[in-house]
Design a protein that fits this description.
This protein has 17 helices and 14 strands. It binds zinc ion.
Length: 499
């Protein structure tokens, strides 16, 4: 069968089994660089944070940064890895204009941390992602292509290089291939990167901001027919948001399925994720390890972390996200599955901050997981970028608790907050959205509703108080939802002599 059209995701996954793998780079937040004393401040004037060592000048000798080694060991421990008692850095040889030494000091066959795992929860089920290695290396500089419309080298009139980033410590975390997850592969990839980010953030060793590049993710994807060998993988780079991790895996599964359906073989290559279209485009064909001519770095002494020091670091690890989630689920009185939805929505910190601003757990969760999650989903943005802050949500729920807003009005106020009209109080004032509980203002509407519904009024006079709900509804309609329901009900009953 020959098809040239992209299959649907469902068709692709019905026919093929995906295997994914993730390589994540995390820039450490150390004060100084990996092998010299240069500062690492983000956004400084180009080439002001450089020295002979990070510029790779002849004769300059590197010295390893103890804080970076410590941070890497802590990451390894938090990921349940074994820590090497002895290992070395290696030279990875290749030419890049933004890498002045013409080699990157990295680790090859002697990584600092090996054989760990991260558990993620998907639909109440635990999926274990095994970690192959966590190693330490240095970042490259940054090329800037000017004169073209796109900022890419194509069409540029000149290129500039900023070496401020060259030599900043980078930790690379590599998973083992993850098979057997079927249609959930995109979701598992996103859940893993989310969990990894949260673990590293809890260690306070990096600000792990994907959009600023301090956490960067490469996603490997391959497909195979059931029962057959794993397919050839492609590596998707430039995936710089959690949502993009999910989209990249999904689009690569569809693309590879299309080729395999046509009997075309998959080449091992690097591909680039396109934020605008959500698909991947070819990059260079993938180098293999032998292309890099790795050898042990002769200018650095080996690393031999004292087991007593490692044990000390392990004992001092902070509360990790999985432990924190269990604690919060208990404090908030919700199930593990509900907690998982909170995590998946990226709402855990937003809810925590809303509670800290004075709202009940149920009140905070209701807004972030309901109306705001829906709006974020519709707009295709992360919940944190939806346009409302925890303080604003706390103010909103405070107004509901005080009877100044009902649920329907509160949703309208939230709409204004999200649209950038200011805090809830400002939106209420500008849009005239407060609850009307003034009996004088409501009596006319109540009398009109009684006059228009004589049958219902008669039932209430006969003592069938439950019928009052229909009249309350009529009044809410004529007041466009702004009447205070309790005041309206009391008024109806007293006007009909049934109170
Ligand atoms: Zn330097």
């Amino acid at each position: 069968m020959s098809t040239t059209a992209l299959p649907s995701y469902e068709d692709a996954i019905a026919r093929y089994e995906p295997v994914i793998g993730l390589e994540t780079h995390v820039e450490l937040g150390t004060q100084t660089k990996m092998f010299c004393g240069c500062p690492t401040v983000f956004g400084a004037e180009p080439n002001t944070q450089v020295c002979p060592v990070c510029l790779g000048l002849p004769g300059a000798l590197p010295v390893s940064n103890r804080a970076a080694i410590e941070a890497t060991i802590r990451i390894g421990l938090a990921l349940n890895c074994d820590i090497a008692s002895w290992c070395r850095m290696a030279r990875k040889n290749y030419f890049y204009p933004d890498m002045p030494k013409n080699f990157q000091t990295s680790q090859y066959d002697e990584p600092l941390c090996v054989d760990g795992y991260v558990d993620v929860e998907i639909d109440g089920e635990t999926v274990r992602i095994e970690i192959e290695r966590v190693h330490l290396e240095e970042d490259t500089g940054k090329s800037l292509h000017v004169g073209g419309a796109t900022g890419r080298i194509h069409g540029a009139t000149e290129s500039l290089v900023d070496y401020n980033r060259a030599g900043i410590p980078l930790v690379e975390i590599v998973t083992k291939p993850v098979p057997g997850i079927g249609a959930r592969a995109p979701e598992v990839a996103k859940a893993y990167v989310t969990e990894l980010r949260d673990i590293i953030r809890s260690l306070n060793v990096s600000d792990v901001r994907m959009e600023q590049g301090s956490m960067r993710c490469d996603v490997n994807t391959s497909l195979n027919l059931p029962g057959e060998e794993w397919g050839t993988r492609t590596e998707t780079k430039n995936v710089n948001s959690l949502r993009s991790v999910e989209r990249a895996v999904r689009s690569e599964i569809i693309r590879q399925a299309m080729l395999l359906n046509d009997g075309i073989r998959i080449f091992q290559e690097t591909r680039h994720f396109q934020e605008t279209t959500g698909d991947t485009r070819p990059g260079r064909s993938k180098e293999t390890a032998t292309d890099y001519r790795y050898f042990p770095e002769p200018d650095l002494v080996p690393m031999a972390p004292d087991p007593a020091w490692v044990a000390e670091l392990k004992a001092a690890l902070p509360e990790l996200p999985s432990v924190k989630r269990a604690r919060l689920a208990e404090e908030w009185g919700i199930s593990a599955i509900d907690m998982q939805s909170v995590v998946n929505a990226g709402a855990i910190e937003l809810i925590e901050e809303t509670i800290a601003a004075g709202t009940s757990a149920a009140g905070a969760r209701k807004w972030w997981m309901g109306e705001l999650a829906r709006r974020a989903n519709e707009a295709g943005v992360e919940l944190a970028e939806v346009g409302a802050t925890p303080a604003q949500v706390a103010q909103l729920q405070g107004l509901v608790d005080a009877g100044k807003l009902n649920d329907k009005l509160a949703r309208q106020v939230l709409e204004g907050v999200v649209a950038g009209e200011g805090d809830p109080a400002a939106v209420i004032a500008a849009r005239g959205l407060g609850v009307v509980s003034d009996t004088g203002a409501l009596t006319a509407a109540v009398d009109a509703a009684i006059a228009e519904n004589p049958d219902i009024a008669a039932k209430i006079r006969d003592g069938k108080l439950a019928a009052a709900g229909a009249l309350v509804g009529a009044v809410m309609k004529t007041t466009r939802g702004q009447a205070d329901a309790k005041t309206v009900r009391d008024l109806i009953l007293s006007r009909l002599g049934a109170a």
